[in-house]
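# step 3/5: fold
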Amino acid sequence: MTLLQHNINRPIKGSSAEAKKRALAWSPEAKGLLGMAMLLLAGNIMAYLMRAYLADPPLYWLVRKFDFDAEWAFPAWYSSSLLTIAAVLAIGIYLGERSTARSGWRWCVAGVLLLAMSADETASVHENLGRVIDERMSTPGVFHFSWVVVALPLLAAAALVFLPWLWQMERATRLGLIGAAALYFGGAVGMVMIGGLAAERGGQDSLAFFLAYTVEESLEILGLSLGVLTLSRLARRIWVRPPTTPV
């Protein structure tokens, strides 16, 4: 039995009723992450309303920084920060498990990939890749944002590598990480494809495109929040050793 399995299978102290109450309660971390997501969403909606209905909106230069579709804005910085935190947690889990789990290398790979995604979120590498593709070929419809053509096979390859491994984890961790990935990539890839259709048909100033990128970024932030919460709980169980029984 690995250290990870040992810590995961440790019984929870207290009565079953108390354990269920703790499981259902929102942790301070979860409340904070949800509160930040709601704040960013409110700022994004305000930025759109000011842009759409006011000729010369006051303080728009500041409110614009909450726009989900803007570069060098608070939502992009926040998503990049969550990706970095997730990367650190994944590498921490790898360091805690590398001597006991044969599959621990996947944690290291996951950490490196999350760091790369964090850098991309800040530097918009995927959008620059899309410009290069656009110069060489036409990708209409759901591939309006042409970088998706590259992202889909990479995502499929990652699923083949990581899903069987995730499926072997205990239920709470498995559901948390798979749910986080589904939310994040459902927004980052799935909603981008829908947004591409909206942009092609109504333009990037249309209400349909605004709704598409708002749902996209909201799913990304919720997925990253769930992933960070799941990884942080798992890291605590690995690094906090069970008390030893006195001889």
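# step 4/5: annotate
Residues 1-15, 243-247 have pLDDT under 50 and may be disordered.
# step 5/5: archive (pending)
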